[in-house]
Amino acid sequence: MAEAAHESVKRQERAQQVALFRYQVICPALDPALSTRARGRIVRAIAARDHQGPFGGTHRYSRDTLDRWIRRYRADGFEGLKPSLRQAGSRIDVNVLELAVALKKENPDRTAAQVARILAASSGWSPSESTLLRLFHRRQLMLDAPGTGEVFSRYEADAPNQRWVGDALHGPKIGGRKVYLFAFLDDHTRLLVGYRFGFAEDTVRLAAALKPALSSRGIPGCCYVDNGAAYVDSWLLRACAEGVRWSV
């Protein structure tokens, strides 16, 4: 009984990790101000590049998959992005297949047998070697994948509150302690909408800078940040995914 309960908790945690990952992937295409054509361009660009998977490795997703995630998020919010919590059985767990693909892409020299052993060790179950081989052939992972390049251009939000840009800067020492500045700028107006100095670069100080900005300026269309630890904290990502507003 205890083992089954532990396995259930593990599956729920993995489902939330997958949902957060999917939200991060489709987030650029969720802006309601986008036209159908503009959203299509963004989704095609997302489908054309590699993504760091939630459990390691890199892999790509088709436009059909991305469109399905977007529809689910619009219909059911963050919960709609969670995969099924069904037990491994006659139907193969999609998350395990995604992990298998990520492991193969991470090291193309891995055989199906090696991937199967890794899956069995990490999740307690693995598809058969023949199933993995069919999967790798279907995803064209048995061949050398040609390199791809990305071209980026400068951009600016078209209106105030459409996009905020946030970052943390290392400041001087005060009283022998190093300080950090969290700041958010409106991308269109360059207005400093929120800021906060603190003695630590963490989510608590980030929230202290962002909360008054939201109270005085409203909710932006999106926030553009880097991959700093405070910005990729699972609590903050889930708050963004679920559209939670901070209370004053």
UniProtKB/TrEMBL annotation:
Residues 156-248 form the Integrase catalytic domain. SUPFAM superfamilies: Homeodomain-like, Ribonuclease H-like. It comes from the Bacteria. This is Transposase. InterPro entries: Homeodomain-like_sf (IPR009057), InsJ-like_HTH (IPR055247), Integrase_cat-core (IPR001584), RNaseH-like_sf (IPR012337), RNaseH_sf (IPR036397). Coiled coil: none annotated. Pfam families: HTH_28 (PF13518), rve (PF00665). One of its GO terms (biological process) is DNA integration. It comes from Flexivirga oryzae. One of its GO terms (molecular function) is nucleic acid binding.
